[in-house]
Structure formats: C-alpha cells, structure tokens
Amino acid sequence: MNSNNQQYPQKKLWFRAKRYGLGWTPMSWEGWLCIAAYAAVMIADVQWYTVAMNANPLDSQNITAIFVAILILAIAALIGISYKKGEKPRWRWGEDQKGDGR
User: Fold this and answer.
1) Would you list the DSSP string of the chain?
2) Mean pLDDT, to the nearest integer, of 49-67?
3) pTM of this prediction?
4) Residue 24: CB atoms within 10 Å
C-alpha cells in the first residue's frame, strides 16, 4: 500500500511561519520573487502618486483613492499568496522543547 506521502505529495512551501508572532518569511526563490514584486509595486505606486499629485493637485481626492486602492490590492495579494503557499498561520512564541513551535 502507498504511504500518505506518495498518495498526496507535500506542496512546496514558498513561505515559512515566523518564529515569533504572526506572519511569514520567504523560504524559497518563489517567495523572494513575490516579495520583490510586492516591493516593486509599492515603489511604482508611490512614484506614480508623487508625479500625479504634482501634475494635477486639484484632483488629489481621486489620485489618493487610486493610490490607496493599489496599496490595498497589493497587500491583499501578498497575504493571499503567503496564505496559499506558506505554513498554516498561527501566533507563535518561539521554539519549545519539542522544537515544533507550539
């Protein structure tokens, strides 16, 4: 009979859980690529916001709304990818005597 590992191969994790607190940290090149893409989107969003505000300061409300929408979408995408491709999230207090983080 096949073992569970052969029937259901483990998914490759891109993010591991942080040792303390809640959240993830990259553990593969795919995870680091996600972080780099997120940082690039944030930098581009801030640059666009600065240029747009200088070019058209009278439309600041719409420009700010677009800036915040892009910010929220990028954060939601990073959290979603981390949740799907990372370890199960839970609050952690560091390693215990068993070494399993509980």
Assistant:
1) ---HHHHSPPPPPSEEE-SEES-EEE-SHHHHHHHHHHHHHHHHHHHHHHHHHHH-GGGHHHHHHHHHHHHHHHHHHHHHHHHHHBPPP--EES--TTSS--
2) 94
3) 0.76
4) 22
Closest alpha carbon to 37 in 57, 65, 45: 45
> Contact, 42 vs 28, CB < 8 A?
no
Structural domains in the chain (count) = 1
Contact 95, 19 (CB under 8 A): yes
Phi then psi dihedrals of residue 81, to 5 deg:
-65, -45
